[in-house]
Amino acid sequence: MKIRKWNDNWKFWSGGDSFALVWGIPESAVDVTLPHDAMALETPYEECPNGTNTGYVKGALYTYVKRFYVPSSAYAGKDVIVRFEGIYEKSSIYVNEQLVGSCNYGYSVVDVNITGALRLDAENEIRVIVRNGAMPNSRWYSGGGIYRDVYMLIGEKAHIAPYGVRINTLTLDDDSAEILVKTRIDNKDNSRLTASLETRIIDPSGKEVASVKVPAHLMPLESREIVQRITVTDPSPWSEDTPDLYKCVSVITSDDFCATEKNIIMDSSEESFGIRTMSLDKVHGLRVNGKTVKLRGACIHHDSGLIGAATYDSVMYRQVRKMKEAGFNALRIAHNPAAPALLRACDKLGVYVMDEFVDMWTRNKTDYDYSMSFETDWKKDLKSMIMKDYNHPSVIMYSIGNEIPEIGTDIGTRIGTEMNAYVKELDDSRYTTAGINGVFAAGDKVGEIMQDILSAACAKKEQKSAKDVEGIEAETEAKRDVEIEKESGTQENTDCKADGKADGNVDVNADGNADGNVNDFMTVMDAHMDEIVNHKAVSQRLDNACTFLDIAGYNYMTARYEKDYVNNPDRIIVGSETYPPQIARNWAEIEKYSTVIGDFTWTGWDYIGEAGIGIPAYKFGEGGFGASYPCRLSYVGDFDITGFRRPVSYYRQIVFGLRKKPYIAVQDPHHYGEKVITTPWVMSDAISSWTWDIPKGSRIIVEVYSAGDEAELILNGRSLGRKASGKKEGYRTLFDITYEKGELEAVSYENGKEIGRVSLVTAGEASKIEVDREHNDYKESCNNAVGNGSINIKTIDKAMEKEASCDNSDSYENMEIVYLNISLCDDVGNVNTESDTDIHVSLSDNLELMGFGSADPRDVTSYKTSDTKTYNGRCQLIVRRLDNNKGIVTLKAGGLLTEYEII
């Protein structure tokens, strides 16, 4: 089918009367170009019903309307479909006031056939009503409205079905690969179809390497899948190291006409795919193309940083590229199906994907979430995800759910078995998993577990002095880990009471139930999580859940890796969600056990919502457990929300063995000696800076991340000594020193030989605003815009020369998105991290502001305004170029002024 983006010329408004007699367009309606995140226009406020879930941003009722003319010359006798890649949420779609489709799930691709509702040679109206006002309905910032691309598909009555071409690699060796191509053809005509299907394989260089042509004779109103086995010689396999992409060109030509009119193209399609195989076993773990792979993974939510939830190819490409450069080779899309734009980026850059279906099944996690529709909708929504993913080589496994409380129960086992069977029916080439949290899986056994563990913990604590052990933690963590936690001020989460229960806001109540949400519980009970996940009740529920999964996804259950390697040797495990500070411990276990195939940290990239779980704080409510307004961001992630790498990212890269140079992070000296309130997701409050507004001689703690067995700290040329570092020390060494302006260096040694060094210098007074434009190596073209039937196809054979073009008439859509990183610097360009100030931006008329803000987790200023405040000396401006002329950005901060040209 001919397919084109349909993002332009929409009207939008929020609110309205659902019982209105006449469906008009109010004067308040504004012109918008999709993708469009309506929630991003809202300003956070303390009384918001969504609370911390969405960063105090509300949802509402949204309406989108597009009016378009339908000439009979182009539409008569055609099949017309509108594809929505994502509408959040509970959408109803009308054409000329007739309901043509609906979708409750905010992350599903929806194809709506509007043929029967169209009026030829007349103006038509499509209206999308989005009900996002029932709050809360998400545990994180979801965005709202039509936040992903929209397409129109137009085809003959006989055509290749949408998502109708499915490609799979059957065998692969050095000399050849056998490809299975399944092509579904729909004949919606009342007459027979006498045609041919030709399938051509184009290699990454653009050369045709294989071609097969077969008859395609269909009866009236028949839909048929045609299967072709095609051999490709000298294949270039797709992997993280060689993300080579092939194209599969499918063309239907008519054989019904006289000889002079044969080979008329009726429909055509082009799909990008990769040649790759996978295998899974307890000896080799996960193998891709015969090579064992350990997944260096990160979980990410779907938002686009300061832009909000609106999804763009170049933005997704930027995010994936940055994460791969930082050492990740895998992403878990949490906890919803990935945007097609993200999968395209992962295909191109060579990043493996765990695509996740849902965050809940039959039990709510918020009052109005998808659990209300799960029983009736799960099959169609799961199918939507799999059909979208099928030809993406980056997708290697499907997660059918995250932290499902009922997953290990009898009913949960039945549901999981049905879901797994349905996945295999649609796609038997990939593996299934689920993110299982031991605490959640325990369900009604939590009370029993807590009584057992806390009673034992308190008994032990009474027998040992505080000097020798701090509760049960000392028996479950390595000695060095405990020392690091003490030195960095990590809080002790539990104390014993007379009844053997834990003190804190999350507790086991009189009925044996755990109060509070799972994040709160895991924070308070962090010291006991190893015992909790190894409890026999958790093991029983895990055994039930693992009966229907190819891979057991363990959320925060590193403590089970060794146990299950011994007791369940055929169980393949992935750390589907883990604490960032524990990566050294986790990776050592992953390298040790062949059955543990990788780790996915929570998270790779900071996000809006779940506010505060990663914010170090010094007063209750400012962050961590009990975070409240104005906390807006989660503040966990190797990257902050602007895409700036945080210290834990460099730490992880060293643990992975991908960086030899050390890294310096400095704990906030303004709070030296104070007890920091943290959660298990927080390593410390350190940033990479040696610019502090404190007196000379003040105490300060420096963290050095080092791959070598020794780390040395040098201040202004003076050695402050060497300390043990490297794997035995968890790759993290702390120096407690006195502050002095100048240059601070860290040197890493292995067997006495220097293997790398890095330095920080004290910045002078901020005297200028520096603007750094990020390099944009993303080349948007029709080829990466969409999937099935999307490409500008020029057939190889002259007899079939006809262009089935991707008509990207949305010129606005193709304008470049530009990222400008803004810093307050001294005369020589050093960032002054202690000189934060308000900053205002003005733009020339040919630039559109898409996002303006900083990584400050407590800033509640709208990212859509022209004012923000720097955070640690930095902020970010994102603009879209509306034409190819020079754009002017003017920035003013206090007495500083700068003008920047975008050309």
From TrEMBL:
Residues of the Glycoside hydrolase family 2 catalytic domain: 286-461
MF annotations from Gene Ontology: hydrolase activity, hydrolyzing O-glycosyl compounds
Source taxon at top rank: Bacteria
Keywords, ordered alphabetically: Glycosidase, Hydrolase
Domain Beta-mannosidase-like galactose-binding: 50-132
Glycoside hydrolase family domain ranges (all copies): 815-893
Annotated transmembrane regions: none
InterPro entries assigned: Beta-gal/glucu_dom_sf, Beta-mannosidase-like_N2, DUF4982, Galactose-bd-like_sf, GH, GH2_Domain-Containing, Glyco_hydro2_dom5, Glyco_hydro_2
Region annotation (Disordered) ranges: 465-504
GO biological process terms on file: carbohydrate metabolic process
DUF4982 domain: residues covered: 697-755
Pfam families: DUF4982, Glyco_hydro2_C5, Glyco_hydro_2, Glyco_hydro_2_C, Glyco_hydro_2_N2
Glycoside hydrolase family 2 immunoglobulin-like beta-sandwich domain: residues covered: 164-276
Protein family according to the UniProt entry: Belongs to the glycosyl hydrolase 2 family.
Protein name: Glycosyl hydrolases family 2, sugar binding domain
Organism placement in taxonomy: Bacteria, Bacillati, Bacillota, Clostridia, Lachnospirales
